[in-house]
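task queued by scheduler; priority normal; single chain, no ligands, no partner chains; default sampling; output format set to structure tokens
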Amino acid sequence: MNQNIKEIQGKNGRLYYYDKNQNCILDTKGNKIYVKEKLENIKTQNLRLYLDDLFDDFS
């Protein structure tokens, strides 16, 4: 996997991919959300919940 892409597993088990270069998050279905802030400083537990909530509307 590309060094600039970080895999994050949500609390619900879904996988998300954070692309640091493009400042976006993708899910396994191909949905993409662009973010303005860097996510490296967010606690992993909070990020997992946040991503589940963000991508819930795409289900």
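post-processing summary
- The chain has one helix and four strands.
- The mean pLDDT is 91.
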